[in-house]
Specification:
The chain is an all-alpha fold. It is built from seven helices and no strands. The chain folds into two domains: 93 residues; 66 residues, Orthogonal Bundle (Arc Repressor Mutant, subunit A). Keywords: Sigma factor, Transcription, Transcription regulation. It holds the Pfam family Sigma70_r2. This is Sigma-70 family RNA polymerase sigma factor.
């Protein structure tokens, strides 16, 4: 237990030091990439939150390079979330109004999609696509094979790979 407190204290002091020394620089760096000061401020905070959630205090030689690397990952997640939200809203626009989900259901569905996207992150695009065709669209393995132009054995392998990712994530 003592070691955990020491690591947490070291991590907090490291992040606090990084925040005081480089927060303005990081916010400006993000603002130049986003063009929006509000989004830049939010993503800078997300960057520092990610650092606080780390298990160990990093040994930094180049703190700005380190912050930029973490911020790039946060930025990629931000863009991916925007893309997913745009696709979700386009799909909702196709649903007849009388069967469309209420706002609360829409929010729950979107958060579930984000969690699923995060869970499948790192899998090859075709593996993700096969999994989503099976789980979200309800297609059978033969239909997925035709849709993706791959063999049935490959579909089975892809679905197994995605299912294993989900299993080990739980």
């Amino acid at each position: 237990m003592r070691r955990s407190i020491t690591v947490t204290s070291a991590l907090t002091s490291t992040v606090e030091g990084l925040y005081h020394a480089h927060h303005n620089w990081l916010t400006g760096w993000l603002r130049r990439r986003l063009g929006c000061p509000h989004s830049a401020a939010d993503l800078a905070q997300d960057t520092y939150m990610r650092l606080l959630q780390a298990r160990e205090a990093p040994q930094l030689v180049e703190p700005r390079a380190f912050l930029a690397t973490v911020a790039k990952r946060v930025l990629c997640n931000h863009f991916r979330r925007q893309e997913l939200e745009r696709a979700y809203l386009q799909a909702l626009a196709q649903v007849p109004e009388e069967v469309a989900p209420c706002e609360e259901q829409k929010a729950i569905i979107f958060e579930t999609l984000l969690a699923l996207d995060h869970l499948l992150d790192g899998l090859p695009p075709l593996v993700k696509r096969a999994f989503l065709l099976a789980q979200v669209d309800g297609l059978g393995q033969g239909e997925i094979a035709r849709e993706l132009g791959i063999s049935l054995a490959t579909v089975k392998r892809y679905l197994n790979k995605a299912a294993m990712r989900c299993y080990f994530a739980l």
